[in-house]
Amino acid sequence: MRTLSCMSSSEPDIAPWLLRSKVTPPRQLLSLIRRPDLIQRLETGAEGSLIMLEAPGGYGKSCLLSEWKDQSARQGAKVCWLAIDEDDDVETFIAYLAYSAHIAGIDTAGSGLLNFELSSDGNPSQAIWQFLARIERSGHPVHIVLDDFERLSPAVSRLVIPTLLRRLPENATLVIASRGAVDISTVDFDHRGLVTRLGPADLSFGLQEMTRLWKGRLTPRQIERLSEWTEGWPVLIRLLLTASDMGTFDIRHIDEPGYRDMAIPAYFEEKILSRIDWDLMVFLREASVFEEIPFDAIQEVLDQDDPDFWRRLESLEAFLVPLSGERSGYRLHPMMREYLRQTLSEQQPGRYGALQVRAANWYSDRGNHVRAVKHALAAGDETLLIEILEQTGGIRLWLQEGLIEFRAIDRHLKPEIVQKSPTSALMRCVILMKSGKQSDAAALYDGIIARHRARIAADDLLSISSTVMRVMLAVYGGNKINDQDVQQIEDAIRRPERVFEHFEGFILTFKCLAAHQAGKLRDAIQFAHEALDVFHVSGSLYGEVYIHIHLAMIHSFMRQTDESVGEFRQASDLIRRDLSFEGGIKYLNDVIAIEARHEHAPYDQKDMPRLKNLVARLLRAEGWIDIYSGAFRTLSEQIYLAGSLDDALHVLSLALDFSRRNRITSLTRICEAQREILSLISSAPRQSGGGAVAHDAYDPIPALATSPWRVVEAECERHLHLARSGEVTPNLERVTAFRDDQLAEGNLRVATRISALLALVSSGRDLERSLGILEEALDDNRFGRATLFVEDILRAQIAGAGLAARFPQLFARLSARPRPAAGEAPGGRRESIVTQKEWAVLRELHKGQTDKQIALTIGVTEHAIRYHLKNIYAKLNARTRQEAVQRAAALGLLTLS
Q1: Are 361 and 395 in contact (CB under 8 A)?
Q2: 832 vs 503, which has greater pLDDT?
Q3: Does residue 687 lie within any of the structural domains?
């Protein structure tokens, strides 16, 4: 069940999953080491637009900013604090940015940013403007602190930060704290003197500060020695001060010869740990096996439950940082933890291994599979590791919670371990499929089934999981699922005494998909609603989202517009509210939504830039035949309408390369049909590409019993275009039967597309029936895609047959529709598959420029250049810089001279 609520009902305008800990500075139990000189530099820097603190961990960036935050607040400034995480996508980042403003006392009511009423995905700039408008109207100086900036995702860096910088109000200062160099362009601010930078040299303690800190306890020479030895590293200075205050370190000996070349590890051992009580020192060493030390693990794994011991732990607060939440536990300072962990593993390998085993079992019992696996790996216990992997639930875990957790596990597993663990192998198959590597997934699956056949047959969960995987491989491979497949799957899943949780929903999802593929849309809707009920009860958000996407698609085919819009909205709301970290699902929803809009208004090309990015992602991500077909056919048509047949055909070539590599036969057939259709309507020579089939060597109208309806639709369209051009004799009986079957099922998308083309090669009653279907379907300006490319011909056919008066509304619509000539873009503007920035990169590549030179020339960062290159390679199906230039020239994007 969903348990994502953390806000009170008194704040209904705030998404319940927003965590206050992300918008508040880290807790500090020790008194902060005051640094008035740096605080003054921050105060001066706040008069500009940008402050950048760039230094490794341990330089006190967060502590310094926390101190400055308190001082600034007392002086009337508003401080918005945001700690960044790696999985913050664009919408999550903007929501937390708005939440930080809310916590700082800036009015964000009615903005929609805190509950996703205003979507940032389609237009993140609009959401940032909304946020900055609230900052500008606050009437106070505002400091926007972005802590842990090195964790910023590429999407946020590309889509949010430039706008944030470019539109920063006069009363606002952006403050960035990062462990590494900040990869953003600050040229405009630098020219105007609006940037303040603090690096390691600035943040290190100088001689005057150290003299002040030690309060006369050291001679000038000792201060110099201490500065030389520590290089002013704030975290080490803090440890030394604490150790001195505890009486475990006598700084007066710093001048002795033995201190001169002493490394930090030796200092930890000899001057700090050796002077701590023995049992506390042993505890620190053994606690180092944990990345974080949960309160319960201290008792159950480290065997410490003495109340007096807990009190004595407080003396170690220089080394133990409390976790958020009362009695949540601690974490060791990373520098200290690494030293202690290495020491334990080298000096007591048996104890180290035993503790790792205990920690692995402890986390596994509590369902924290990722950390359990990490500890099993650290223990070097392969048997335990495989046992834990089998306990994760594998496919069942995926159906309930998605891939986030298992992706984290999979990254740590070597191929030989995966081969020994059928559960993790099946999950790697899922990960490969969702990375656009269906062929690799199928090969791994076949190998695992052959290797573990007996074990899989004897284990109900493994047996069901392997069956689910077989079905998913078929679905993602574009294969037609028939009634026999459905029955076999249901028998396999229901064979045990009980159906495992979430597999009931999978059965219904599978039935929905099979009915949809067969064109039985009403049955698909029924199964979908039954699946939704199951997923809602079991709490499977992923299952719910996928069903809503399917329903939105099906309703759009049936001209049930309100229902379709509602399903799209429900899918989007679930993704934004509960699954914003899972970007892949949103892309699938967007592809289907764009296809639906194209179906009704094909000349509206506002979605084309977004669809280009989606198609580039699809070549490396999840998809199935509806997603692939919707994306590639729609984009090829939009690009063709924008003025480039070559680019449109290139998109289809990319899809064909992908489909052949992954043996997705259905997609290959659809793209071959689409490529020939575009060539026919433009009167261009048809490209074979090594995959064209002679028209007399194949059945142009496949049966729904063997092919998904999308394949039948595409190949029927191609057959009718060929018939119109006189290259084949039309098989009107079979095409009409397919059209009528789909019409009976409510699939108006197919019925209108096929009717428009049938009208071009029919006469008499057959012509009138097709026109009647078209006129009725188009009476509310829906399904405009049906007559795309053939409006003029169809209008002439109606006029020539003397039927203009019989079908006046259809005739009038065909006359009124915009019809740009083939190859001519609306408004005379030619759209390319590459963006302007990507074109500029290609131009510089042709000149032989390096990434750094290109970045300087076009005014972006080297990181941005690498991002553009990745997109260029995907869009042009190139692997090297030279190959990208050559392919761009072949498409007319560059002139080689």
Answers
A1: no
A2: 503
A3: yes
Residues 6+ positions from 717 with CB-CB distance below 8 Å: 673, 677, 753, 754, 757
Q: List Cβ neighbours of 89 (8 Å cut-off, separation of 6 or more).
A: 153, 155, 156, 580, 581, 583
Per residue in 648-704, pLDDT tens?
999 999 899 989 988 898 999 999 999 999 988 887 555 544 444 444 444 556 666
Residue 464: name the closest of 538, 398, 386 by CA.
398
Say whether both 677 and 801 belong to one domain. no
CA distance 863 to 428: 30
Residues 6+ apart with CB under 8 A from 201: none
CB 239 within 8 A of CB 272: yes
Other Cβ atoms within 10 Å of 752 Cβ, number: 27
Run of H or E residues at 146? strand 142-147
Kindly state the DSSP code that residue 106 receives in the 8-state scheme: -
Coil, strand or helix at 31: coil
DSSP alpha helix (H) spans, 601-707:
608-618, 625-642, 645-661, 665-682
Q: Is residue 246 part of a domain?
A: yes
**Nearest residue to 609 via CA among 384, 836, 893, 312:** 836
Angle, alpha carbons 254-260-265 (nearest 5°): 90
Nearest-angstrom CA–CA distance, 330 and 342: 19
Whether 762 and 812 map to the same domain: the answer is yes
Q: % helix / strand / coil in the chain, to the nearest 5?
A: 65, 5, 35
List C-alpha distances in Å: 599 to 84, 558, 630, 686: 40, 12, 10, 25
Cβ neighbour number for residue 100 with a 10 Å cutoff: 26
Give the C-alpha separation, 72 to 93, whole Å: 24
- Residues of the chain with pLDDT > 70, as a percent, come to 83
Domain extent, residue 220, equals: 207-274
Tokens of residue 447, six digits: 């190998």
As a whole number of angstroms, the distance between CA 509 and CA 613 comes to 28
Q: Pull the structure tokens for residue 48.
A: 């500009």
The total of structural domains in the chain comes to 5
Assess contact for 24 and 103: CB atoms under 8 A: yes
CA 786 to chain centre: 34
Residue 465 lies in a domain: no
Please check whether residue 639 is in contact with residue 822, taking contact to mean a CB–CB distance below 8 angstroms: no
Both 61 and 105 in one domain: the answer is yes
Rounded CA separation 469/441 (Å): 10
In a domain, 151, yes or no: yes
Residue with tokens 């977004």: 610
Whole-model pTM: value is 0.63
CA 895 to chain centroid, in Å, comes to: 36
Asked whether the beta carbons of 543 and 504 are under 8 A apart, the reply is no
What tens digit of pLDDT does each residue of 282-320 get?
Answer: 888 899 999 888 888 888 898 887 878 877 776 665 567
Q: Long-range CB contacts (< 8 A, 24+ apart) of 371-378?
A: 371/291, 373/409, 373/412, 373/413, 374/291, 374/412, 375/289, 377/412, 378/289
- What is the rounded distance in angstroms from the CA atom of residue 466 to the CA atom of residue 451? 13
- For tokens 């997923």, the residue is 535
Tokens of 451: 């290797």
Count of C-beta atoms within a 10 Å radius of residue 305 = 10
SS in 3 state form for 55-77? CCCCCCHHHHHHHHHHHHHHCCC
Task: Tell me what the mean pLDDT of segment 578-587 comes to.
Answer: 73
Across-strand partners of 660? Answer: none
